[in-house]
User: What shape does this take?
Amino acid sequence: PYWDYFQFYYQAGDFRLEHYIIRLNPFLVSVEEREAQDDMTGYHVWDPLAYSERAKNIVVHQFTWFIGDSFILAVGEFLLVGGRSLQISDLNPMLVFHNFYGEDWGNVYGFLNLEYQPRPAFRSYIDIVIDDVVSPVESGVENAYPAAFGVMIGFQTELFKGSKVNLLWVAEGSYVSPTFGIRSQPLQTFYSRMFYIDNTVGGKRLYVDYPVGYYLGNDLIDFRTALIAKTMEKYELSVDYHLLFKGEESLHSDPADEGSAIHVGYLPRGIVEIMNEIRMECKLKMNRRYSVALNGRLTFLHNKDHIEGAKAIDFGVGATLTSIIF
Assistant: This one.
């Protein structure tokens, strides 16, 4: 989904510091959500309604080092501030080291990205994000849910370069643990809520929650490979294959249920939905500012909606117009 955001950065030689401030819609659409957000039971805050303000924002801090001609190293934090307005302390780029759950106004994870490009025709990368670390010496750790993290590894290489056509191959794998990003309070949970008007039922509002951080959410193992053909003139053709194993946990899962013995381990949980998907796109670049594309998708689902044995086939076709205004 689209976001309203503010970005600023500082660069000195091979070092770059970036800040992003992003606004998310703070909609709470049910009594249960409002009660969960406003319930401060168990949190030692100075005011029972201290973090019940309807506000939800993201602050990202990133440090990047360009090492030689081949390596790029980036570390930073992704801070979700919910239940209160932004404050100047949110600009602190070291909040990932703070234990601020006693105030319960945020949710934060740290990330590391390493990119290696020894030559223009080959690029590899790894992304690691850590939402929670469970130490063996923590009190009550035997009843805690496991550490929450995610990792992505991938590469892009040039298979063929001719006078008029380049052929690229992309491959990547991703893993996100079952408990990544889960919180009891909806304004501190990693999703962006959008609403649409459904005119098929008399203009009813339809609310959709899009995961923030990794676009497919949590509790998954994901593989992707693609072939991309680019001409030296106007055309680009891509074929993309996607294999996803999605567990039953979502960003709406209740962390209070995570302490039982069945909620341990790191593999996708419950009845795993398996998705095989093929996407194709043909793009025409009309000029420097405009491009149009035709795209299609064919999806095969097994254990659809986490119902054992349920199967479905889905497809879609579409067209896009892209315009660069500035």
